[in-house]
Amino acid sequence: MEIIRANQITKSYVVGKVVTPVLRPMDIHIQEGEYIGIVGPSGSGKTTLLYVLSGLEQPTTGVVYYDSTNITEKKEDDRISLRQSYLGFIFQFYNLIQNLTVEENIQLAKVISSKKDSLEIDHVLEWVGMKEYKHYYPHQLSGGMQQRVAIARALVNRPKVIFADEPTGNLDSKNGQDIMELFRRLHHEEGVGIVLVTHSLENLKDCTRVIQLKDGQIVPHE
Ligand SMILES: Nc1ncnc2c1ncn2[C@@H]1O[C@H](COP(=O)(O)OP(=O)(O)OP(=O)(O)O)[C@@H](O)[C@H]1O
Ligand SMILES: [Mg+2]
Predict the structure, then answer these.
(1) How far is the CA of 165 from the centre of ligand 2 (A)?
(2) pLDDT tens per residue across span 170-210
């Protein structure tokens, strides 16, 4: 089943009088349970594409659908609540709230989503191997541990797709491999769709499909 469809999306940024086209017209269809890698040189538009597909940014032209819902024409509030119930996000710098504990960070994600069937906090913390740390604050944890908590937070509302932007970019190789193993299990055991932006070819080995960007266009992946 198709869960995200982007039709002829483009994105341009305007700074002063200069219009910079960042994404050229493209179509992207994502099926349930796909594990997609997005690669390309710095500045090729990977993060921008992730933001447009996930509704964090509006496309300049074109339309994005979740299932059959046109999210581009939705009001900001509706887009936010759709995002909170369908999607999970993982960023390079974890984006945990520093003055909340591990447990409170995940609780917050549960509370702001309208999802009635969200998972138990203990369950998701156990899943990422962080249950003993639920009363810790982010600054008391290593980068790898913080990223595990961010994965637990992304998972708690049972998303259909998790979007990750260079989730191992700030980690050493051992911690990076452990995080990639969690992604593999998310896809393989939990059936969650994944869209992963990465610079590392090694991280692509579990992907079911790779989208290669160059200058804001999809080009064949070598
Ligand atoms: N908010 C913005 N305003 C203006 N230009 C932007 C904005 N965000 C991105 N850009 C421009 O869009 C282009 C693509 O940026 P993007 O962050 O998507 O690249 P990227 O492929 O993720 O690069 P990296 O690998 O370095 O993270 C860049 O030229 C960047 O300067
Ligand atoms: Mg980027």
Answers:
(1) 7
(2) 999 999 999 999 999 999 999 999 999 999 999 999 999 99
CATH superfamily of 34-57+86-219: P-loop containing nucleotide triphosphate hydrolases (3.40.50.300)
| Contact indicator for 28, 2 with CB cutoff of 8 Å | no
* CA 144 – CA 176 distance, rounded (Å): 7
Ligand 1 atom nearest 20 alpha carbon: 5
Average pLDDT in the chain: 94
Which residue ranges make up each domain of the chain? Answer: 34-57+86-219
Long-range CB contacts for residues 63-70, cutoff 8 Å, separation at least 24 = 63/6, 63/7, 63/8, 63/9, 64/4, 64/5, 64/6, 64/7, 64/9, 65/4, 65/5, 65/6, 65/7, 66/3, 66/4, 67/2, 67/3
Q: What is the DSSP string of 85-122?
A: HHEEEE-TT----TTS-HHHHHHHHHHHS--TTPPPHH
Q: Is 20 in the pocket of ligand 1 (CB under 6 A)?
A: yes
pTM equals 0.94
Tell me the C-alpha distance between 53 and 23, whole Å.
12
Pocket lining: 48 vs ligand 1, CB cutoff 6 Å: yes
Residue 14's Cβ-count burial label (10 Å; 0-12, 13-18, 19+) is: exposed
